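Sorry to interrupt, but I need a hand with the structure work. It will help me judge whether the discrete encoding reads sensibly. Write everything out right here, beneath this request:
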Amino acid sequence: MTQGTNQEPAQRYARVLSIAGSDSGGGAGIQADLKTFAALGCYGMTAITALTAQNTLGVSGIHGVPPDFLKAQIQAVVEDIGVDAVKLGMLHAPEVVEVVAWAIDRYQLKNVVLDPVMVATSGDRLIAAETVQVLVRELFPRAIVVTPNLDEAALLIGHAIDGVDALDGAADELLALGAKAVLLKGGHLPGNEVVDVLLQGGGERRRLASGRIESRNLHGTGCTLSSAIAAHLALGATLPDAVERARAYILGAMAAGAGVKIGAGHGPLNHGFAPVPTHRLPLKAG
């Protein structure tokens, strides 16, 4: 029989909090975030903003969580466990955005990755129109990076992005809205190559290109990418490195899930295609 010890553990896990909506179909939202955190060796936690009735065919209902209860979820997690990085997903109402902004300031949350979820893969609108302005005002300056796809970027800047050559200008416009950095995802553009643009506030610009993976199972790609960025930030990567590593992970997950049928519509990625053990970090205060 092994005797116990009073010695405090010297290690902890890399902790990532997802503040987002729940996808009952398991392919996006909170569910995709937790799968991604686990696959990349992080300890995932959640504060759920809304419940959705959703499957591979689309969203049939949204039930918002009261702001006070969202606040209680965040407080419970942060005050006990602590947070190394935050992924923000579906924030459907202005009062929800305001709770999140309060929490970032109150707890000095760092490594906040904002995925401005506005339109689902199925085309369903997931955010009230009046929320967009509040989201930009309150959260763009508080996030380390904002990760819109083309549809979301078009809503934010007020016009369509009609080709790869327009990505740089659109990224500039998004940065001008108050973001510290923008990862503009060009996956919805036609062509055999997918080009994303990472633009940081200091002017550093990177074009990230990869071959297109043909698959019907692309539900939750945006959630997964932003979660993977947050996970790598929690593990200590710089933003450019976190983005590079997150893109490598999502490309692997897309390729591994391309030949699988789940549901009658847009299926999920294979989040668990190459899991790693949960990382242990030195225990530090906070």
In short: The first strand starts at residue 11 and ends at 13. The two ends are 34 Å apart (CA to CA).
